[in-house]
Amino acid sequence: MSTKADRRDVIQFLAEDPEPLWLLEHLRDEPSTLDDIAEALSLSQAVLRPTLDEFLERRWAERTSEGYRITTLGAFVTMEYLTFLDTLEQIDESEQFIQELPLEAISSFHSIPETDASDTMNESRR
User: Fold this and answer.
1) Which of 6, 7, 31, 50 lies in the 20 to 30 Å Cα band around 16?
2) Which residues, at least 6 apart from 43, have a Cβ–Cβ distance to it below 8 Å?
3) In a structure prediction context, what are the per-residue pLDDT tens digits for the chain, which is 126 residues long?
4) What is the count of structural domains for the chain?
5) Is the pTM of this model over 0.85?
6) How far apart are CA 7 and CA 104, in angstroms?
7) Helix and strand element counts for the chain (H, E)
8) What is the CATH number of the domain that holds 94?
9) DSSP string over 42-85
10) Residue 82 is assigned to a structural domain of this protein
C-alpha cells in the first residue's frame, strides 16, 4: 500500500520535468524503441534512459520485442495526472468566480478531506 509520501513522490516525478509526461503520452499512442522515442521527442537517449528505467520500476511501462510499451497502470496514471492538470487549469481560469463562493458552496460539490495540518507539515519535512 502506498503512503502519502509515495503519492507525493509520483506527483513530484511527473511535475519536475516535462519529459516523463511526454514519454508516457508517446508510449500511450504506440510501443516504441528507444531510438524511435528519442527521435519523436527530440531528446537524447541519455535523457530518456533514466526516465524509462523509472517507468519500468514503477510498472508504468514494460519492455517488449517491439520496444517499450505503456502498461495499464501507466495509462491510468497518465490519464489521472492529465485530468488533475486540466482541473488546475479550470480552477485557474475560474479563480475570480471561485473566490466569491462561500466555502459551504464548494464543499457541497466535493468532500474536503479532513487532515491534521501538523501531520501534513511533518510529512513534508521528511
Assistant:
1) 31
2) 19, 22, 37
3) 567 778 888 889 999 888 999 999 999 988 999 999 999 999 999 999 999 999 999 999 999 998 999 999 999 999 999 999 998 898 888 888 888 888 777 766 655 555 554 454 555 545
4) 1
5) no
6) 28
7) 8, 2
8) 1.10.10.10
9) T--HHHHHHHHHHHHHHTSEEEETTEEEE-HHHHHHHHHHHHHH
10) no
Residues 6+ apart with CB under 8 A from 40: 26, 32
The C-alpha atoms of residue 35 and residue 96 are separated, in whole angstroms, by 46
Q: Three-state SS for 123?
A: helix
Phi-psi sector, 53: left (phi>0), alpha (psi -120 to 50), beta: alpha
Alpha-carbon distance values, 14 to 7, 10, 80, 82, 114 (Å): 11, 6, 12, 10, 26
